[in-house]
Design a protein that fits this description.
The complex is a heterodimer of chains A (262) and B (602). By secondary structure, chain A is α+β, with helices and mostly antiparallel strands. Chain A contains nine helices and seven strands, in the order αααααααααβββββββ. The longest helix of chain A has 30 residues. Chain A is globular. In chain A, 32% of the residues are buried. Chain B has four domains: 124 residues, Sandwich (Immunoglobulin-like); 126 residues, Immunoglobulin-like, CATH 2.60.40; 122 residues, Immunoglobulin-like (Sandwich); 127 residues.
Chain lengths: 262, 602
């Protein structure tokens, strides 16, 4: 039996180990080639060749240029092609990198309007998001930067105490410490959500959610394109999912997409 | 109590006197009927509501109906401080022959002018069904057309007849209407009917059906369960014969459960004829009319006007997705979401479909909007029909001239506000600038994040260690002692604070020691055995001016005098000594900033 303290230590270690995943390998490709591909993809999009445009944008992303704008453009190509689920998946990736991307937020809203399923989610997550207003506004890197800055400032103020020990400095130090704790916790939650329990999106038109990892298992319920869920675990081509209203089940992996950056 | 009665009386008086005067501002007369389709042996309940006046309507006369008055009732209501009076006159109308008749309008004279009510169209049919001879309770189901065309509106009527008292009536099983699209046709109605001299209470439920499959379809039976109330043993109850006592609650009656089932109904649905079927026919079956109008017949280039197409009638209008229009040169069209208002017209489901299109002209001149054509199938005549709107003319002024005119024209006093009409929805465009390939300026790796996290902690630890090491050296020990001298002095001073019960000798002893320790700590010398004279010279040597040194020396001397002399217990003097000590401590802390050099120490 693992004691809670040791378990939280393991979790922290996992978070630290998984953190590099948020930083993709840097540009293995020639910059001029990428620029050419990008121009070609834009032309294909303008000409209505959305499938070609999607392939080209994906190639650029695979070449290490995983930017919010590229995921956004890729989402647009899927949307224009009628693949609302894949569009939502890529808008979510764009917002993961650039959370304040207004066009991606707008297009995601429009795409979500076209989804079929209505799930009655618990309000806890929405309330938490409203209270912790910074959480959806900052990506993991930015949140980490704020946390590190607050941490550094706290220790600097601890050092300054030996020369100037005033009440103002004591209060400031306490405020900075609270800030460091809050942003550290937010960073932990974000890294957990990104790397350990990421969201998934249904990309097929309609999928059967089954009680087990076989096509012979009982169909528990159906989901439609664009519906969001939590990606719990995967095994042998099957993914265990959980909806925000608590419903769980297994779906075939090729019918869903994971909101993680490639 | 008397006060309450007076208030109530005043309120009633106010209502009676003010109500007619308030209500008389906007009088109205409204006619409503309980049913608009009856058989020849039934009757209609007509209610005339008169609001805003106490005048009576003119005598009611309805051709082809025998009229019986059932009295009137009045009602005064106060809602949000607004008072309204309403008088309702009830009449029973017995039809004299079959046909479609218009009831009303009814008139009312008010202050010399005549106010007229609405009119109501009612249909009187032949007596539909006679109940089985002698049956006390039974159910029927019938349809108005057993050979309809595909998508034609038919009505299925379920009736529950009873001439005895029943309880807990419940329609347990309704037909599935397989092969039909079904909709409720109004709310269930209840009425009285006399057949063969027996009075029945009839509850009627109507369903509108639209067959969607050709061939022979069957409407499965309706099943109703109820408890029939019967007298116990048929004994006479004398005065308790009143129906009120028929409730099982009183124990004079008992209930017998009964299940009633209608017969299944066969419907033969005919396919729509292929001959003459228009290419753009959209399975619209019924009776319809179509009209078109423009919100503004003249606009400038780039401005929008709204074309409203209104399709109304009875039938499967609800299933029509919209009304399409052919493209028009120099005119952009944006479809709005169609709106549908469902109505029951002469006992059939229908309504009005309103389709709005925003038209934006691209060039100046006169634009002819061609007729909008729609085809439908008329089931009564069994033929396809075409309906078309009138062609419309849109006058388009040049945009520049319009702008000039607007600039030249005086600004209106108040502009008319309008809601922004959403003409279309689409996603934002792709980002094509090369910046789309630019990676975020700030990216952290796990290693650098870990280093940045640990670095300030490590630096702080180094600082702490350095301070510990420095504190261990003698010079720094003296400097530390000097720096902390005033803090230690303040702590001692707080403990020394005089109180009336304190021993004077003890107070002065502690005051003297605190002062000596402070000087010793501040200057890095042993201060416990310092005399007043030595203090003066030490302070002078440390840089204090003569006045301060002399004052400090005197203070220490006064403490010594109090300790060794015979000083009486005087709280005021102790308080003054305490204040002097505190002031001198602050003064010396400011004056003696640096400790004496080590070699100066004895």
């Amino acid at each position: 039996m693992i004691c809670p303290l040791r378990r939280s230590g393991v979790l922290l270690l996992l978070l630290l180990v998984s953190f590099p995943a948020s930083v993709p390998a840097q540009t293995p490709s020639n910059g001029t080639d990428v620029m050419l591909l990008f121009t070609e993809a834009n032309s294909a999009y303008r000409d209505g060749r959305y499938h070609d445009a999607a392939c080209l944008y994906q190639r650029i992303i695979d070449a290490g240029y995983a930017t919010g704008d590229l995921y956004y453009n890729l989402g647009n190509t899927f949307f224009k092609n009628g693949a609302v689920g894949s569009a939502i998946l890529n808008y979510r990736k764009a917002l993961m990198l650039t959370p304040r991307h207004e066009d991606a937020q707008s297009n995601l809203g429009l795409a979500l309007e076209q989804t079929v399923d209505t799930i009655q989610c618990q309000d806890t997550a929405r309330i938490l998001t409203n209270v912790c207003f910074w959480y959806p506004l900052l990506n993991a890197d930015e949140m980490c930067a704020v946390f590190l800055a607050a941490n550094a400032l706290f220790w600097i103020l601890c050092a300054v105490k030996y020369w100037f020990n005033t009440d103002f400095l004591t209060i400031t130090r306490s405020v900075i410490l609270c800030m460091a704790i809050v942003f550290g916790a937010s960073l932990g939650v974000k890294l957990y959500a990104v790397h350990i329990a990421p969201d998934g999106i249904v990309i097929a038109r309609e999928i059967m959610v089954r009680a087990g990892t076989s096509v012979n298992d009982t169909v528990l319920f159906k989901l439609h394109e664009g519906t969001s869920f939590v990606w719990k675990e995967e095994t042998e081509g099957w993914v265990k999912i959980e909806l925000c209203d608590g419903k769980k089940g297994w779906v075939q992996k090729e019918t869903v997409g994971r909101v993680v950056l490639s | 109590m008397r006060y309450c009665a007076l208030c109530a009386y005043a309120l009633i008086l106010a209502v009676c006197t003010i109500a007619p005067s308030l209500a008389s501002d906007d009088p109205a007369i409204t006619a409503i009927v309980d049913r608009d389709r009856i058989a020849l042996d039934e009757y209609i309940v007509l209610k005339l509501s008169v609001e805003g006046t106490r005048e009576e309507p003119a005598p009611v006369e309805v051709p082809n109906f025998t009229i019986r008055s059932r009295g009137s009732s009045s009602q005064i209501s106060i809602v949000n401080g607004a008072m309204s009076a309403k008088i309702e006159y009830t009449y029973l109308l017995y039809p004299q022959k079959t046909g479609v008749f218009t009831i009303g309008p009814f008139s009312l004279k008010h202050r010399g002018r005549s106010i007229r009510s609405n009119t109501i169209s009612v249909t009187v049919t032949q007596t539909e069904q006679q109940p089985a001879q002698g049956a006390e309770i039974f159910v029927t189901a019938l349809i108005d057309n057993d050979h309809p065309f595909l998508h034609q509106h038919i009505v299925c009527t379920f009736q529950f007849w009873r001439s005895v008292q029943v309880a807990n009536a419940n329609l347990t099983d309704q037909p599935s209407f397989e092969g039909f699209v079904s909709e409720d046709l109004g709310k269930p109605v209840e009425y009285q009917k006399v057949v063969n001299g027996r009075s029945y209470t009839v509850t009627e439920i109507k369903k509108a059906l639209f067959p969607v499959t050709a061939g022979v379809l069957e409407i499965t039976p309706f099943t109703l369960q109820c408890d029939v109330v019967v007298s116990k043993g048929g004994r006479r109850r004398g005065l308790l014969q009143d129906p009120f006592f028929n409730d099982p609650f009183f124990g004079f009656t008992e209930t017998a459960p009964k299940t009633l089932r209608t017969a299944p109904i066969q419907v033969t649905v005919r396919s729509l004829p292929l001959d003459g079927r228009p290419a753009d026919f959209k399975n619209l079956v019924g009776t319809y009319s179509l009209s078109a109008s423009l919100s503004k017949p003249s606009v400038a280039v780039g401005e929008s006007t709204t074309l409203t197409l209104t399709l109304s009638g009875t039938g499967n209008i609800k299933n029509l997705p919209g009304i399409e229009m052919p493209p028009v040169d120099n005119l952009k069209m944006y479809d709005d979401k169609p709106s549908f208002e469902q109505k029951t017209i002469h006992g059939k489901i229908g309504g009005t479909l309103t389709v709005k299109k925003a038209l934006v002209p691209l060039a100046a001149g006169n634009i002819r909007i061609p007729p909008v054509v729609l085809h439908y199938f008329d089931p009564d005549e069994g033929t396809y029909k075409q309906m078309a709107t009138e062609p419309l003319q849109l006058t388009v002024a040049p945009a520049a001239a319009e702008q000039t005119a607007v600039v030249a024209a005086p600004r209106p006093a108040a502009s008319v506000k309008q809601d922004i009409a959403v003409l279309g929805r689409d996603i934002m465009p792709i980002h094509t600038a090369p910046e789309a390939l630019r990676r975020p300026a700030f990216r952290l790796r796990a290693m650098s994040a870990a280093i940045l996290f640990c670095l300030p902690i490590a630096l702080f630890a180094v600082l702490l260690l350095a301070r510990r090491l420095r504190a261990a050296s003698p010079d720094d020990a003296r400097a530390t002692r000097a720096r902390k001298a005033f803090d230690a002095f303040k702590t001692e001073l707080r403990a020394l604070k005089p109180n009336p019960r304190q021993d004077a000798s003890q107070f002065y002893q502690r005051a003297s020691k605190t002062f000596r320790d402070f000087i010793g700590d501040k200057l890095g010398i042993p201060g416990a055995a310092m005399t007043a004279r030595e203090l003066h010279s030490v302070l002078r040597e440390a840089g204090a001016d003569d006045t301060v040194a002399a004052e400090a020396s005197r203070l220490l001397e006064s403490f010594d005098t109090a300790i060794f002399g015979s000083v009486s217990h005087d709280p005021a003097a102790m308080k003054q000594a305490y204040a002097s000590l505190e002031r001198m401590g602050r003064l010396l802390d400011r004056t003696l900033k640096k400790p004496r050099r080590r070699e100066a120490a004895p």
